[in-house]
Design a protein that fits this description.
single chain, mainly alpha, transmembrane
Length: 123
């Protein structure tokens, strides 16, 4: 039988190691999902990276939940929770509405090009 208390205690005991894997993993997989969405890669690539990011972000939320369950409320818990929720939202965006993400990328790229042209003219 699954002992949730033991799993939660293990999560809190090895917090530094767990966060050392989850934080960069979540950011990297989310960035990869966004990059592949903006570069119009196939659905398989996008779903793989976004699914991995969703999994890692969900594990991070559960890990933070173990700290909140024992009433350890610090700024770090809220920062990790916010990071996980932002990565979760961006991954869902890459899955649900890739066209709007690609339009946003095109708009941002066009704005940078215009900015660079203005900078070249003023020199």
């Amino acid at each position: 039988m699954l002992d949730l208390f033991a799993i939660a205690e293990l999560s809190r005991t090895h917090c530094a190691a767990i966060c050392a894997v989850l934080v960069p993993g979540s950011v990297a997989l989310t960035a990869l999902a966004l990059w592949w969405t903006m570069r119009a890669r196939t659905r398989r690539w996008r779903y793989g990276a976004a699914g991995g990011a969703l999994l890692v972000a969900t594990i991070m939320v559960l890990h933070v939940g173990t700290w909140l369950a024992v009433r350890v409320v610090t700024p770090v818990t809220f920062v990790l929770l916010a990071l996980a929720l932002v990565c979760w939202a961006e991954s869902l965006w890459a899955i649900a509405a890739p066209g709007s993400l690609q339009r946003l990328y095109g708009w941002g790229r066009a704005a940078l090009v215009r900015r660079n042209r203005v900078g070249e003219l003023s020199r």
